[in-house]
User: Fold these one by one.
Assistant:
Number 1:
Amino acid sequence: MSIADIGAAVIGTGFIGTVHVEALRRIGVAVHGVLGSTPERGAARASALGVPRAYASLEALLDDERIQVVHVTSPNDLHLSQARQVLEAGRHAVCEKPLAMTADESAELVALAARTGLVNATNFNIRYYPLNQHAHDVVAAGDLGDVRLVTGRYFQDWLLLESDWNWRLQPERGGALRAVGDIGSHWLDLMTFVTGQPVAAVMAELATFIETRREPTGPVETFSTDRSAETVERAIATEDAATILLRFGNGARGAVSISQISAGRKNSLQYEIDGSQASLAWDSEQPDQIWIGHRDRANEILLKNPALMGPSGRAATALPGGHVEGFFDTFAAHFRAVYADVVAGAASSRPGYPTFADGHDEMLVGDAIARSAREGRWVDVDRSPARPQPVIAETHR
Ligand SMILES: NC(=O)c1ccc[n+]([C@@H]2O[C@H](COP(=O)([O-])OP(=O)(O)OC[C@H]3O[C@@H](n4cnc5c(N)ncnc54)[C@H](O)[C@@H]3O)[C@@H](O)[C@H]2O)c1
């Protein structure tokens, strides 16, 4: 079997569903159809994207024998039921982050995926900027020495105004954590990936500066700046911003700030990792360069270049040095890694891409963050065996 034999479908046709469709096409996967919130909306989006079919329901999608992989890009409250149905129908699943609404839900998906042996991935695409893959190799090779300090931020501004609205503001659709679940999960996953260290404990403060917002009576697209004249007032319970102290598994310390209300910061993820011998820093708005800091010689800036990166960085790169790769490209690089397992027919024993287990781990870190903020104290991330653990695969598709 080759990638040209694989058929996929995408659930959700909004901001990120569109990116999934285009990235799949780029890596040579046939996207046979999409599923929208209604058959009419699905049909309109299928037509705009040039996708042959809009399914009337998830059942109709799963009746299509050509579909081997389903991408779940709907709002967060639908991830569990849709991903569960996909796996139970024997299809491989790629699900957007956050993987689910609660850690119990994500644990269920981890266990189900393991029982089926199907390929499962959580779309932590930011790992797939080539220089983040390279950073992972650099830290793993010991080039920074011992990782001691991990700091950074993830700032956006699209929810700055009280008139800004999106389903993410409704806890029953987005989850109990908003900025942390939506974008903080990316930063935390990325740091776990690059350093190889799990987040062990957190001390968090969550802040809701805009306690009442105006919800338009009509639908709103993610990142849209159109304003509806008709609105209703809504009380807001979730955080606009978070400040979090971190302890990692190896004893490294960290601090991250997360915000959806920082004027001018459209999508600014930054990190710095300080080791006992050298440091690394990266900024998502300059994604083709990474800073390497030294004590006794000049600092370096590495421009993304397959000839100068390690094997992981090279594998995530599609273009020669000097040809900038960005957000779109991370999806193609991630999906290439996932679809290697799809072509093989089952999840490999140690996938290199982020799986449902990684999505679940971020839910556990999120639980600790919420509890720390509630109780005003350090909280350990609870990975105790009492929680459902992945089991050995019993069946292969
Ligand atoms: N990895 C990333 O970089 C990234 C970026 C943005 C969003 N996301 C994640 O992707 C998901 C979607 O976010 P978005 O920004 O695209 O939101 P969006 O509101 O732009 O799109 C959501 C889509 O889901 C559709 N939908 C709603 N109910 C549905 C149903 N029952 N069945 C099928 N489709 C349904 C909506 O019509 C809409 O098209 C979220 O989980 C979000 O966290 C990830």
Number 2:
Amino acid sequence: MPIDDNHKPIPGSVVTFKVFGVPVRLHFTFILLLVFLLVIGVGQRQSGLMTALYILALFASVLLHELGHTLIARHYGIRTLEIVMFPIGGVSRPERAPKAREELWVALSGPLVNLLIAAGLLIWVGVQQGFVSLAQLREPTDANLAERIALGNLLLFVFNLLPAYPMDGGRILRSFLALRLPEEEATRIAAGAGQGLAILMGLGGLLWGNFILMFVALFVYLGAAHENASARGRILTSGFPVRAAMITDYRVLQHGDTIRDAGNLLLTTAQHDFPVVHGDSVVGLLTRSALVRAMLTQGPEAYVAGAMDREFPRLSPDQPLREVLPTVSAPGSCALVMDAEDRLLGLLTSENVSEFLLLRQVSLAQAKEHPAR
Ligand SMILES: [Zn+2]
């Protein structure tokens, strides 16, 4: 399943290697799942080697699925920033969101890879030894390894084609909806379907006491909710520049100020993050967490210049607001708005962006109720 628009690496991932020049990272929850599968997989009739082989084959299937997305995206000139392996599948992060028509093929390519693997294995098994019944597959043995890998790929194929975000099927649904509806509206419907599906899966998991189903439901819900919120944000900010939402009434710290000065400013104002200036130019940004860290490790007499972030995110006032949402979407994030001559014009924080979204929502609701005004 490809996801878009967040250019920061996904946190929580360990172990990285490259395939076709694309970094592949394993999320720590994925590694936990591998260990879990290995532990429950070693039964009486299945050797440790075959269990490891089975898990490795499923891992490779998920990875090939993502590489399917990657290669078709590349065909449309979209680079993949990274592939992250999560327990319910991989996530590939394209550098830009594909257009509706491109998205259909990018989304289809992953599940098709799994269908091809399953078909290939089943044909091979059929030629070699004939099929075994589904009932026999319930017990993992060394002899039915190929059938179980094929079955796993069929499940991946079906699961990923569910017409709900964040599954590939949700993207396919969205690309069809986008033929008739605005893109954001289409995303909202596909994401809503994802949340509905997740709730059903979660209820099913509770009813049947199926822990894995509940776990998958949680992941699907979070993915869909994230997509829904960012679609809503894009609708509400559409047509507005960064300038429209930035804070213009703010305080700054001087290069020579101490952590104590910064602490006083934190207490006496409502501001959390402070630009640090030296003469007319901005030299850094002191966030609240950096301020607290410096207070603990260096004490109140240390200079802010030693604790500030020199590589702070900077935005131009005329940039479309919808494009910079990922930069300030994480809670507590702050970016400085600067003109072409590097003069400071304002701050954009996650807090005031959400206030901007709130006001836009209210004014849209009012415009609906009183269209004459
Ligand atoms: Zn996929």
